[in-house]
């Protein structure tokens, strides 16, 4: 294979992969120097001149002429006078011989190996460029197209045809994908696995929600409103604490938009995730009260270490504070960075009795429904009956009845 053919085919391949000219020249020189070292053991006294535009390649070997009987004659950068005069008859001792080495001198096998090495180096470089590109994009929103839906992940392609993955753990539970769908997500992680770049995206990360706010709310993008913290139960509920550095801007109102216009697009993107936007404050008690919204707190007691707080609420506010499946209190706890303990505060009227609906955080719905089915809709109406009566009148097991009595009795202790 001629040098021009080798270089031209490599240059075309490299340009197709968007490899710049200096990088292309560097790779070519590295491969040719490897060939030289294999044949001559060293490349110290060789110069390589490459013109990738026209496929020209020149390899020059430089050696100093020494006497035929010199002890240095076997050095890699020395040549005997007799050998030098075979190249040029009028050479003298001490002069330097510049000898051009042709690509064919390395042999057909070496040239074919060089061609394969060049292509492999471009592929490796392409992988490294892809890895570095996405490593710099971690935490940023990108868009991809679904090309394969697997059990444990969804595979996407970006605009350049590169493969991206959305693992099951990083998908919103309500997400459903079909081939050809366009998906937005943040770059969650970029890593090399067995020499290949693996780019993982996430739709469940709090950062994704933060970036969506930046995209939809100009004041957040411009830095007039700062997102202090984001906590999520992906696809279900989220709490976002925001703060404005301009007294004229209402951070909550700006994020929600007129009639919810700004937040609606975010909610739709997150499969109708319920988003509470909260005004951040350094006043811890006020921040806690806002975090537990929509429940209204009667009073609270914060531990000295400020890692735990006991909040007291009216009975009708307890279920609001806890939320469906404990979501509200769990997210509020994450938002403020404290463990939250909820207690009912009973006034004189409520001491007389408590509606069973107030125990949804401790008793399962089906248990409450069964009690109400037989006309028992308050705590004291249940406690008036014996265990045997409750078992006989309802379809509840004796063990379940004991648990119900234990929970309801604690309310009046």
UniProtKB/TrEMBL annotation:
Q: Which PROSITE patterns match?
A: KH_TYPE_1 (PS50084), S1 (PS50126)
Q: What Pfam families does its record include?
A: KH_NusA_1st, KH_NusA_2nd, NusA_N
What keywords are annotated for this sequence in UniProt? Cytoplasm, RNA-binding, Transcription, Transcription antitermination, Transcription regulation, Transcription termination
Cellular component terms, GO, for this chain's entry? cytosol
Q: Where in the cell is it found?
A: Cytoplasm
Q: How does it assemble?
A: Monomer. Binds directly to the core enzyme of the DNA-dependent RNA polymerase and to nascent RNA.
- What family does the Swiss-Prot or TrEMBL record give for this protein? Belongs to the NusA family.
What is this protein identified as?
Transcription termination/antitermination protein NusA
The upper taxonomy is:
Bacteria, Pseudomonadati, Bacteroidota, Cytophagia, Cytophagales
State which gene encodes it.
nusA
């Amino acid at each position: 294979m001629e040098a021009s053919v080798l270089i031209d085919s490599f240059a075309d391949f490299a340009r197709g992969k968007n490899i710049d000219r200096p990088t292309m020249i560097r790779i070519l020189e590295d491969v040719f120097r490897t060939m030289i070292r294999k044949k001559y053991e060293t490349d110290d006294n060789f110069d390589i001149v490459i013109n990738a535009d026209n496929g020209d390649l020149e390899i020059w070997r430089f050696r100093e002429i020494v006497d035929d009987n010199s002890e240095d004659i076997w050095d890699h950068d020395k040549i005997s006078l007799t050998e030098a005069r075979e190249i040029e008859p009028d050479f003298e001792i001490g002069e330097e011989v510049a000898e051009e080495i042709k690509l064919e001198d390395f042999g057909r096998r070496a040239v074919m190996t060089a061609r394969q090495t060049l292509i492999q180096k471009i592929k490796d470089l392409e992988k490294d460029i892809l890895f570095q590109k996405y490593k710099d994009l971690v935490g940023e929103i990108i868009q991809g197209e679904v090309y394969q839906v697997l059990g444990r992940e969804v595979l996407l392609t970006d605009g350049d045809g590169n493969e991206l993955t959305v693992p099951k753990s990083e998908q919103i539970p309500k997400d459903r994908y079909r081939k050809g769908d366009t998906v937005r997500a943040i770059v969650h992680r970029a890593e090399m696995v067995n020499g290949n770049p693996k780019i993982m995206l996430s739709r469940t990360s709090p950062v994704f929600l933060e970036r969506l706010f930046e995209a939809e709310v100009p004041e957040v993008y411009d830095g007039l409103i700062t997102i202090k913290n984001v906590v999520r139960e992906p696809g279900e509920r989220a709490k976002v604490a925001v703060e404005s550095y301009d007294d004229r801007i209402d951070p909550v109102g700006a994020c929600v938009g007129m009639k919810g216009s700004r937040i609606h697009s975010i909610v739709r993107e997150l499969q109708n995730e319920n988003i509470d936007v909260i005004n951040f404050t350094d006043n811890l008690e006020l921040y806690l009260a806002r975090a537990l919204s929509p429940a209204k707190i009667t009073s609270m007691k914060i531990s000295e270490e400020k890692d735990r707080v006991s909040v007291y609420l009216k009975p009708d506010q307890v279920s609001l504070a806890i939320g469906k499946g404990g979501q509200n209190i769990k997210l509020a706890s994450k938002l403020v960075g404290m463990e939250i303990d909820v207690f009912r505060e009973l006034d004189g009227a409520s001491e007389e009795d408590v509606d069973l609906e107030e125990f949804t955080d401790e008793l399962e719905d089906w248990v409450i429904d069964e009690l109400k089915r037989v006309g028992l809709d308050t705590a004291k109406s249940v406690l008036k009956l014996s265990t045997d009566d409750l078992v006989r009148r309802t379809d509840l097991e004796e063990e379940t009845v004991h648990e119900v009595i234990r929970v309801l009795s604690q309310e009046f202790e």
